Amino acid sequence: MTAQKVLNLSDLEQDTAVRVVIDDVPIAVVLDSSGEVHAIGDTCTHGDVSLSEGFVEGDTLECWAHGSQFSLRSGRPLNLPAYEPVPVYVVTIDGDEILIDPTVTKEVN
């Protein structure tokens, strides 16, 4: 599969997550406070709720239901109750377009 346009960069507000679905894969797209665009799995690994409804702070996205914070860079939970990471997707910016391939995840250490 190739990367697909999901949003325009101009559609994103800083420190806010937007939910997109590509081929039945829910993804939270975030423009962080430093201007970097991130894409992580939109389903909390603890409570099966949408992370894009949560709160962005720095380079984390906090689940609104139970408070677990996930790193936007690695997908790892930074606190309990979640202990499983969410996938992190490669983001390509082409002009104003944000492109994501839901079959390509970042390798994080």
Automatic annotation (TrEMBL):
It holds the Pfam family Rieske. The keyword Iron-sulfur applies. One of its GO terms (molecular function) is 2 iron, 2 sulfur cluster binding. InterPro entries: Rieske_2Fe-2S, Rieske_2Fe-2S_sf. Residues 4-100 form the Rieske domain. Gene3D superfamilies: Rieske [2Fe-2S] iron-sulphur domain. Keywords: 2Fe-2S, Dioxygenase, Iron, Iron-sulfur, Metal-binding, Oxidoreductase. CDD domains: Rieske_RO_ferredoxin (cd03528). This is 3-phenylpropionate/trans-cinnamate dioxygenase ferredoxin subunit.
